[in-house]
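Colleagues,

Please find the record for the two-part complex below.
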Amino acid sequence: MSRGDVLAIVLAAACVGLLYAHLWQPAVTATHVELRVGGKPAGRYALADSRDVAVEGRLGTSVLRIEDGRVRFLRSPCRNQVCVHSGWLHRGGDAAACLPNRVSVGLVGGDALDGVAH
Amino acid sequence: MRITPSPEDRLVAGYAALAIVIHVLEAGFPSPIPGVKPGLANVVTLIVLLRHSLRLAIWVALLRVLVGSLLVGSFMAPGFWLSTAGAAASLLLLTLGSLWNRTVPVLRLGAPGLSVLAALAHMGGQFALAYTVFVPHPGLLRLLPPLMTAALAFGLATGFAAAAILRQLPPVAAGRP
């Protein structure tokens, strides 16, 4: 193995390490639920307010329950119920989706910014 | 019409056939995580690059992706496009690597270095396509570090395999491609 190889491998390993540092930050505290239907934004709800939200999807109505800063699919008109079995979501970045009904939920932090560059 | 294959054509065909066999055999093994596989066929690409030329290596890699997908049955399926994006990115990196070797011969990259960089580029290209076209969800980004770790490990493995094979091969006869 040449010196160039050693350099390349060390650099590559460093890049992978940086990826972990950037993309595996500690989960942000989620404050809002973002709803999407067919990929398009369909509403934003504060996790602080407990309530049920009914969403019209392609197959019918999916019901989401927001409670104690968490959210889950309560009912969905799909056959396999993967979304309902996903259970409660509470960390920022968590997401669940009912693909047959085209409804997805994602948890986001307080500000709607993806990042800030100085 | 009659096509007379040049010695170079025969060489590309032979290496590509070898790469395709490895590709198809590897496709038969189940992978624990989608998108992660050892990519042993790249050993052939590396050997062609280091023994012959970048141009022949690009031919062998592209033929392997095309014919491999036809044999496995994934031609034009999402997996084929992912694989093509990955191959394009890794070939771009091998091109840069060859330029590097020409300009900075002191820090020449051999099989292990080229392989690791190409493996990361392959995963990066594949992931970029998956993220921008197939699943544009921020959650997917969390998968990137472990995927890149796998690419790093497999890149090292294929690189050392290629280096070991290159040491066993006789030197290329003068005057041949």
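The mean pLDDT of chain A is 86.

Comments are welcome before we finalize the supplementary table.
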